[in-house]
Here is the input.
Amino acid sequence: MSKKVADVLWDMLANAGVKRCYGIVGDALNPVIDALRRNGRIEFIHVRNEEYGAFAAVAESYLTGDPVAVCGTAGPGVVHLFNGLMDARKEGAAVIAIAGDVETSLIDTSALEEINPYKFFDTASLYTGRLVNPEQARAIIQTAILTAVTEKGPTVISIPGDVASADADARPTRITIPAPAVLRPSDADLNRLVEMIDEAKTVAIFGGDGCRDARDEVVGLAKRLKAPVGYAYRGKQWLEHDNPNAVGMTGLLGYGGAYDAIHEAELLLLLGTDFPFSEFLPNGRVKKVQIDKNPKHIGRRTAVDLGLVGDIKATVTALLTRVGEKSDAAFLEKHVAGTKSFHELLQHYVVKGPEIKPIRPEFLAATLSEVAADDAMFFVDTGTACIWMARHVNGGRNRRIFGSFAWASMANAAPYAFGAQLAYPGRQTIAMCGDGGFTMLGLGDLLTQIERKVPVVQIILNNGSLDFVNIEQQEAGMLPFGVEFKNPNFARVAEAMGAKGIRIEEPGDVREGLAEALAHKGGPVVVDAVVDPLALSLPSHSPFHTVKGFTLSMAKQVLSGRMGQVIQTVERNVRLV
Ligand SMILES: Cc1ncc(C[n+]2csc(CCOP(=O)(O)OP(=O)(O)O)c2C)c(N)n1
Here is the structure.
């Protein structure tokens, strides 16, 4: 049988390192999937919702660095992919979407399930190609793959069924993937930076995911400059562990001395970070230098005094050959001490945890951090889980922590964990899910995990509410509205579906319940952790309007007869400070 266009597609994707394609089959996509079956080198992961597959692909690609494919059929199928593709765009994952398209004879006729792929994918996709003629195939597929891999983001190949099953052009379809280029700033800019460092009495560092391959270099620079190191969520896993200069995170989830360190330093080095909360970054007297391989990141969150385009490893390596050692450690010691006392404060609900019911999420997360393996992979849902993971789960050289930190979608953790487990079979994989998030997307595709017997542990923070929004509303001085719901017993639901279910209601059962979940190897586990819905959390540095808003909300609740809840909330949380 002669090669079809769809055969060329999977050949090229497999040659580029794609190992899996997540999605759902159907009409326009059928000839494409038939070719995947014939090809045999790429595993098809049949999910129950395309969005779940797209999130799984994001995690797989983020962790492995390889491109990963997803597919959805024309119209509704590709629409379901979209949220995951936005996540890939924001989190920087090479996801290639194979989008079913209507027959070429129907294009632009408002046919059933027709969607204009250029318009629809425009916001998410770095490149969208519509394959309407077999002769375009090599160029479109090549461009989609190389763009995804080198620019680290999603691309789309829209393919009508009739073109997929047409005979392929006979020309060769080899593809080569270049290793990442090394990017270093000019000597002039590096010298300017060295001057600024030499002039500054005190230096602080704030790093993000750009420090991924440069951990040792950044920690080495911090040691040399006696600089405290704060980090964005995406930098935590690289810069926190085994780093005596670590001072935690700033922002809404913040903890430690990071906020003070970056505001009190004479010079702040922003390394590989696009931290979006400008209000938590210093203005005024602090001089700022930003280094990033993506020039679009420079100066967009806060005005900087010097911007350098380069990858962090190459740039810091070059810097280390030029900067001298600073001798005064007082600034560093002050902020490390501040971090230590903040940490002690944070331990309040961890230490008291065994006696408090409903279970405090701080205690749950800290216990999880203790019982999890040194190379565990943690995934976190957008919601309060992000707070507890940031503050109470410790990273480690071989641990991974990943969330929808830049896109902030709900329901990301369970599919992330699924994709990660497929990429690293047998490695401990933990998703900390909101009950809103898990019921939004995780529950249906728990069936996929069960069928594949993947040992993913999903811990559901069963607080009966969209708690993060509950906090947001209170901080804005509103009355909580639209945030409560009723949950089933998730452990029993999981058991009925065929997974292992563990319900934890008693604080005394937390350690044992988590250990049992992590020891289960035969398939997925759902831990239904009934946690305190009133475990609200104010940011480490609460701007005045936040505290005022919170107080106002309390006042409104009192006036509306919710006094009991107010007393409970205040009573439970004021003990923290
Ligand atoms: C798809 C999506 N819808 C809505 C939001 C807005 N949002 C952010 S956090 C959150 C609440 C999450 O609730 P839940 O999953 O129950 O976790 P909790 O905060 O209670 O731990 C909502 C609604 C979002 N980020 N993503």
